[in-house]
Each structure stands twice: as structure tokens, then as C-alpha cells.
Amino acid sequence: MAKPCLDVTFFKQQGKAIGLLFLSVIFFVLSHPGRLWPFGVFSTGFPVLAYISLVPLFLLVRYVSWKSLWLYGFLYGTGVYVFFVSWLSSFHPVSIFFVAFFYGIFSLFLFFFFKFVLFLFPSYGWLVQALIWVAFDYLKTVGFLGFPYGILAYTQWSVPVIIQTADIFGIWGIDFFIAYTSALLSCLISVTFVGNSSWNKVGNIGQRLIKAVYKYKFCILFWLFYFIFFYGYGLLSVKKYADFQNAPTTEKKTVALIQHNADPWIGGIEAFQKNLDTLTALTDKALKNTAVDFVVWPETAFVPRIMWHFNYRSDEARFNLVTELLDYMDSKTVPFIIGNDHGEFGYNQKNKSQILDYNSALLFIPKENTYPPDPKIYRKVKLVPFTEYFPYEKTFPWLYQILIEADTHFWEPGDDFNVFMLDDFMVGTPICFEDTFGFVSRNLVKNGAQALVNLSNDAWSHSLAAQYQHMSMAVFRSVENRVPSVRSTTSGQTCVIDCKGSIVSMTEPFQENYLVEQIPVVDKNYKTIYTRFGDYLGVLFVLISIATFLGGCVRKIVVLHNTKRGF
Prior knowledge:
By secondary structure, the chain is of the alpha/beta class. The chain folds into 2 domains: 8-245 and 536-565, no CATH class; 251-522, Carbon-nitrogen hydrolase (Nitrilase/N-carbamoyl-D-aminoacid amidohydrolase, 4-Layer Sandwich). It has 18 helices and 14 strands. The protein has helices at residues 8-31, 55-63, 66-84, 93-120, 125-139, 160-163, 166-169, 172-193, 202-215, 217-246, 269-287, 306-312, 316-330, 397-405, 438-446, 464-481, 529-533, 536-565; strands spanning 34-36, 40-42, 252-259, 294-296, 336-347, 353-364, 376-379, 420-422, 425-428, 451-456, 485-489, 495-497, 503-506, 513-520. A 6-stranded mixed sheet has the order 7-6-5-4-3-14. Strands 8-9-10-11-12-13 form a 6-stranded mixed sheet, covered by helices on one side.
């Protein structure tokens, strides 16, 4: 009998694998704020999906062969980031493919480790998979290429009771709880169904499930205690900080947040003048009949450079615009924190003297430091890789040239987490991308900040999904350090976040608007465990994962060696 020209079994196997891959990508993307056809924009995401988002992934790793593993790992990483951060194409069409390719390679190696630990630990490899997932999530935030978008813990941003342990563990305790849940479920499903030829016999499946539950009873109990601790601590913390914020004795400050809805892709003196007119008009409305303590404008809200053009006056139109701004601020009675491109002479990577640009937040206090302009300055420390900062000009001159030709504007990184003093109230000003990293806000609070004042500009993305993804991460900075946060953004999401991570109020996106809100004054001497020790748990997950993996390799080698010798 002739063999069929198509291997039907092969296509059935690959069909199952593709189905698991599809579910892995869809569950991951839907659990975060985002946009996905045909669902449209889902601003809060579906946080419950996060707990099962890795189940099909872990089953896929168990199911596919070593030969196919690499392909599915690459497709997973690529697929997730193509859909998750599709708004990156607004910056440059190539950027989304670069990010997707990078995380495809990243996931390729991740899948290798996931499968290899199942070989090293046949019964408890699933637990090591959860450890490795969190370790890799932490590594995604480290170094020049650090990009925190897509960490599973951030899916829970809209569920305050779940995220309260961030003041102890940072986001890593939450991240592990989610990964552990998925890994445990994948193990129970695998033990119950894989290899069971009697799928139609419910009793058989039930018996296997009971045996699986009994075998992993302590792991299930650990999950239960983990959940009770998270939920119980969350309930107590939410009540504690709600009582503090609502207490009549709690001192409060009133802030005016301006959202001028400008298009950052449009430049020129006419656009700069229009932006200033909009900013001042909105500020006047915010200050009317309201006792405001300080005003915040978004990241690079005012262009051109204030101090540079006031001091050197090489361009009359820009100098006139700067003096118009200074006159306006000096006529008010409240401090202004504004985003501006600050330039000063210095030395570049080739040790040549040039103007060094800093993405900065400037504090102006009327009648004190407006004329001549001498503001307090915070220079953005953590810059966006490639689009704001590329320190490898000498190593990769060809890539540097490509970025320059793409009209990329590079900044110099700041080197100090300095805070602003507003009378007796201290604030830290993480700029845009910086509030997606825990360490920036942590260092500002360590230096005395009683509130985080974020200046952001996500308008370039023209994406509501991008703005919600950004804000979803900012929520955790308040919980980690137990300080309120305010966000003044160009097009959204301008909002106030309280100490327990709840959104107190928020403006409509993509509109010219302002927000006036009160925030509580917290004790600047109180520091949470996270504020004091930072991402210690993330580092610990990396170390435990490495030690477990290496220990498993040594153990397997010893076992194989002894087996070969007949022991």
C-alpha cells in the first residue's frame, strides 16, 4: 500500500502547537491595556487572563520537540510584541520590527530553559519555569536595553487590593504569583490529560486529576496561603491608606496639571508660540478661584531652550518667546514645574566641546529665580534606548549614523536623583519613560520626595493603548514607595494616583484640558521596605534560577554517570 504524500499526524501535531501558541499570545496581550483587532482598545486590560496567560505557553513547551522549540520560542516573542506595542510604528515603521525581533531572540532562549528544566526536574520543572519567568522579567528592566513593557505584574494595575505588597516586594512578588499560578495549572493539566488515551471516560480523567492534586497538595496549599496573604495584606493596606487620605488632620497640597494636547511632530516658532498660548490659557483657567500650590506642565512642553536662548540670544524670535514665558511665570504667585530641553556646554563621547542637551524638568519660583532664569533642574537619568540615547557611537558607527539620519534627537543622561523643594514640601520629577522603572522613583523618594511628579509626552504615538500601558506601570510607583503621584502629560493620561495605587481623577485623553486636585502630604522620613532595598527580590529570583539550573545540571550529570557505572 502506498504511503500518503502528506504526514497527517505531523500536521495534527503542529496544529495543536499553533493553537497553543495563538492562545499564549492572545492571553498575554489581552491581559494588559492595549489594542487588538477585533477587540479595539481595552484600556484596563483583562487582568484575570494574566493568571492563565502562561498555561498554553508552558503546555506548548512540554508538547513540541526540541527541533521545533526554537521556532515557537521566536514566534512567541515576536508575536507578543508585534501586537502589544504596535504603536511603536508611529515613531518609525522599523522600530516595531526591531523590538519584535529582539524579543523573539530573547524568547527563543527562554523556551530552551523552560524545556531543559523539565528534563532536569521531571516532577517539579514547572516550578523552576515560574522562577525563570520572573528572572527574565527582571532582566528585561536592566541595562541600556531595559524595557519594562510587558511584565505580567503590571496587568494587575486596576485591582488595588492585589498590588499592595509592592511596598514589600516591588512588582516581583506579584509577578511570581501570576507565573506560579500558570505553571501550577499547566502541571495539573499535563498530569491529568497528557498520555491519557481514555479522553471520553470522565471517571478516568477524574481519578488522574485527584492523583495530581494529591501529589502536588503542598504546592496547592502554598498557592492558597500566598493568595490569602496577598489579599489580606491588600485589604488592610487599602483601608489604612484610605483612612489616612480621608482624615481631616491630613495635610494636603493642591496641584494644577496641564494637558495641552500638542502634536510633537510639528515644530517651528509658530507651533512653539501656539503651544505656549495654549499652556498659559489652560493654566489661567486652572488658577482661577483655586488655591493652587504648584503648577505642572508636561515633558518638553515649552520649546525652545529657556536658559540657553535667554543667555546667548542667537535667535531673536526664540529669545522673545522665552521672555514671554518668563514674564508670564513671574506674574503668578505659584511655583511652576515645566518640561524643557536644557542645553549647556560640555564634552561629548569624542571628548569634543559641544552643547549637551538634557531632557529636563525645571522649577521656577516667581520673583525668586525667573529673572534671570536660574531654575532648579532635574535632568532625566534613564533615557529611552536608541531614540533618546545611544552610547555606542564608537563601537557601532554604522548604527549610530542610521539613527542620526532618521532624525533622532539624542540627549545626555543626568547623573543625580535630585528633588525639588516647594516650601516645606519635596517632590521628585521622573520624566516620561522613567516612571516605568522602579529604581528611579525609589531613589527620588530615598532623597526625600513626598510625591512623584511625572512629566510625560506620549502624544507622538497617537495611541490610547500606549498611554494606558504607560500609566499602568506608573501606578506601582505610588504603592512601592507609599507616596502620591501626579502625571502631567501632553495628550494623556494626565491623572492623580493615591498612595494605594488608585486613580483619583483623570482628564479625557487627546483634549486640551487641565486637572486640579489635592494630594496628601506623607511623612518624608517613612520609607517602605521597597524604598530601602529596591528590587532585591528580582535579583534573588535571578540568583535562585541560576543556582537551581546549575544544581540540576550537576545532579543530572552525577545520576547519569552513576547509572553508566552501574551504581
